[in-house]
């Protein structure tokens, strides 16, 4: 084990109470990365010292204004003029305000001319809502102090939230890294801190600074290693090793520990009571292995970097070959269950010919399962890629490792269609210490329902196939139709037009792409990261139905 950093940062909220409790002023306003109960308690402590204090959230201040201060009873429409120059970013930061307000209140965004402030209008009333940002356009702490009627201080307030992330990434940047890859087995970034964790009364939405720290630390470290290697942010080939943020809750001072360590191989026992059709959570790799073992077919596969099986099976038949894969990005877990549920039903179709790799990235899935034990509502993007730190699909030359079973599945079947089952965040995805909106992933910031991506070789046309597939999927599930309609309404309210047009109510992106030898690759995208219970069952049922409908249409000749 190599220790890169072990540092402690005092809690800003406690410092404020101590500072102004000992030296009272007339009034203060502060913006902090603290949950409402903690802020209210501090306000009461300061009031006992004679200080009028209003403590607000620095993270998503507009949403917190509506949750904590807005008094617009009876309003039928609300206009939000966003701060000057960054209207789209602040519209995204306001998510899911349209859902919180409900169908009876019309929400309209316009870009304003006030630097750093929203102007909220409801009927005859107006409010100015300050949104503190630093020079990188990232949310930050802020403090205003009045002595009598005079504003004597109005400036950024350094917080432990900002300091913890900066210190962790500075430790990564400042280490003397070797010249050969991988650079490490596991890079652990452990932060124990206070923060905001609040479930919102709309969909799967949460306000969670612990999750945000995970995202900032993971992607911040990965971006550093890419830049160090001369690669751009969009690169998916770099193999630095496993970057694992471990964010935990503490009411004390914030502690940041960064270290290099060997990975811990922990595989839970198989849940003997698990029934795939009603599964309400993602599966551990050992559970996928057991489910694959129960299916008929010829076996093939490889061993992952950390020693887990990447299992494939081939069912021979008279139809054209089909390949089904899932779990490429291991925190996108509904496709794994959907693929496993689809396999026995495919076997019942006459002449079925397909190969299945139900979990392409078991090492990532093991990390995902581990992180879900403590933070089931977190997206856990550290589990997205392989234990080497790359996206297995981007491996274009040997050694192929975990990608090898996909390539063998294609070779065995001669497939013309590859169904690649994916997911994406089921609630808002933010990176507050990197400009708030995830860099390079702007289209994935908020959900837009279940959608499809069809990659096709030049000269091929899968539109007839897509039209029939989307029609069948939506017509066969009123729940999916309602789900997509609601999420698309929210997208329109906060973002605008969908980035690609719906076909029969399901957004579809069609692109010419020849990265695979298979002429058609259909990628399913269900917003499944973090969901459990009924929401997860809808997700994997939709994935299963996509496999079955696509297989029938393909074998019926719609892609000939």
Summary, kept brief:
The protein is about 30% helix and about 25% strand. It has helices at about 10-20, 35-50, 60-70, 85-95, 95-100, 160-175, 210-230, 285-295, 335-345, 360-375, 405-415, 465-475, 480-495, 535-555, and strands at about 1-10, 25-30, 50-55, 75-80, 105-110, 115-120, 125-130, 140-145, 150-155, 185-195, 195-200, 205-210, 240-250, 255-260, 300-305, 310-315, 320-325, 355, 415-425, 450-455, 500-505, 505-510, 520-530. The strands form five sheets. Strands 15-16-18-17-19-23-20-22-21 form a nine-stranded mixed beta sheet, with helices on both faces. Strands 1-14-10-13 form a four-stranded mixed beta sheet, with helices on one face.
Keywords:
32% helix, nine-stranded mixed beta sheet, four-stranded mixed beta sheet, 14 helices, alpha/beta, 23 strands, 560 residues
Describe what you observe in this structure.
The chain is α/β, with parallel strands linked by helices. The chain is 32% helix and 26% strand. The strands form 5 sheets. It has a 9-stranded mixed beta sheet with strand order 15-16-18-17-19-23-20-22-21, with helices on both faces. Strand 8 (142-147) and strand 9 (150-156) form a beta hairpin. Helix 6 runs parallel beside helix 7 (209-228). The longest helix has 23 residues, at 533-555. The radius of gyration is 25 Å and the shape is globular. The mean pLDDT is 96.
Topology:
Blueprint: E1 2-9, H1 12-22, E2 27-32, H2 36-48, E3 52-57, H3 61-68, E4 77-82, H4 87-93, H5 97-101, E5 106-111, E6 117-122, E7 125-130, E8 142-147, E9 150-156, H6 160-174, E10 186-193, E11 197-199, E12 206-208, H7 209-228, E13 242-249, E14 254-261, H8 285-293, E15 298-303, E16 309-315, E17 322-326, H9 334-347, E18 354-357, H10 362-374, H11 404-413, E19 417-425, E20 451-456, H12 463-475, H13 478-494, E21 502-503, E22 506-512, E23 520-529, H14 533-555
Parallel strand pairs: 2-3, 4-5, 10-13, 17-18, 17-19, 19-23, 20-22
Antiparallel strand pairs: 1-14, 2-8, 4-6, 6-7, 8-9, 10-14, 11-12, 15-16, 16-18, 20-23, 21-22
Helix pairs in contact: 1-2, 6-7, 9-14, 12-14
